[in-house]
Write a structure and sequence with these properties.
It comes from Euzebya pacifica. By secondary structure, this protein is an alpha+beta fold. The chain has five helices and seven strands.
């Protein structure tokens, strides 16, 4: 995609990153999904973006012709406060989403490649994520080397080693 750019997440991107978190969490588009403001007040989701800029926070926003169309980010958690794909204190959890009308164009693969390269550069040994088994994104994750480790509350925790 010639007009695709990947830029680090800055403070001005955080509303879009929250929107992408909402997309990832409610990927089915259920009619009973809460409004985004309400969803972001849920501690289980807020943990992925609140106080962005902590040590270990890294992320990129994909833009097409300057318009944000996707985001991917990693965060370190600990056993007391973590996301759905938590493995351990040294394994950052990856989150990602692409706006619906830009899916299937390779943007997600580009976002994943950028985040895995950044994690490798940061000296990270593994990256984890959580995905529901029937989410089509699972096939992308598996195609780039994420392996299911366990099932938690109906979702798969997947891990990718970074050699």
């Amino acid at each position: 995609m010639a007009d695709l750019s990947l830029l680090p997440i800055v403070d001005d991107d955080l509303p879009f990153v929250r929107a992408m978190l909402y997309e990832a969490a409610f990927w089915r588009g259920a009619a009973d999904a809460p409004a985004i403001e309400e969803a972001m007040r849920q501690p289980s989701l807020a943990v992925y973006v609140d106080r962005w800029g902590r040590q270990g926070d890294r992320g990129v926003v994909a833009r097409v012709s300057g318009k944000p169309v996707g985001a991917a980010w990693v965060r370190l958690f600990d056993e007391h406060s973590h996301g759905y794909g938590y493995v351990d204190d040294e394994t950052p959890e990856l989150s990602m989403a692409v706006v619906e009308d830009h899916r299937g164009r390779g943007i997600g693969r580009c976002l994943m490649a950028a985040m895995l390269a950044q994690a490798r550069q940061d000296g990270v040994a593994n990256v984890s994520l959580s995905v529901e088994p029937d989410n089509p994104a699972r096939f992308l994750y598996e195609s780039i080397g994420f392996v299911p480790e366990e099932s938690v509350d109906g979702a798969l925790t997947m891990v990718r080693a970074l050699p």
